[in-house]
Amino acid sequence: MDISVLVGLGLGFGGIILGNLLEGGHFSALVQVTAGIIVFGGTFGATILANSIEDFKLGLRLLKESIRKEDPSSYEKIVRAIVSSAQVARSDSILALDEKVKSYPHPFMKKVFRFVVDGVDKETLVDVFETEIDNTETQMLRGARVWEDAGGYAPTIGIIGAVLGLIHVMANLTDTSKLGQGIAVAFVATIYGVGSANLIFLPIAQKIKGRVKQHRRVKEMILDGAESIIGGFSPFIVEEKMRTYKTSSEI
After folding, report:
1. Residues in Cβ contact with 150 at an 8 Å cutoff, skipping those fewer than 6 apart
2. Looking at CB atoms within 10 Å, which of 7, 56, 179, 229 has the fewest?
């Protein structure tokens, strides 16, 4: 798992719980099943209604992908494969890359270089795969939008839960045994709504967007490398171009 996920969740929820304890509160006071049902049931219901089951499933799949720790060596593997291909194309021919295609470390790279081996010109190659990159990014961002929507609905549903709790209090003013429970549901529902939006849903959406941008950058690097090889650039120049796609985390 990505360490930033554990650190972020630990600091976020830990700070709230610790602050509550320092103020003399109890952890059990923050656990209200009724408030949880209202907030999370209402939030996910509204989110599915606003999107679709397919988009919701996509959002869940991208959640798993976004919290998974990526292989830090994957960038170097792709760069080495592109530079090696440039060397083969320069010393032999582009057709000689046919034997290397199956060994490439990225599925998008295999697809792009299959076109290269087939003799597709640069303009057609760029046109086809830039369209694919754009369409894939658009589709993936739909998954991020699911979590953004959840982050927008959760605070409002939390307010609804608070109002329901206060209604329960007002309806039982003569029964003091029920006042505490009603007030607890009212305030905890608000905490659940605002807290889940800002500590879970919206950060997840941003995490997914970051991964989508990262995947796009890798694909653009692969496409640029293939275009450079078709253009006859030297392996040295190809490698230098690939290095410009390196992010701060890969330096």
Report:
1. 43, 44, 47, 197, 201
2. 7
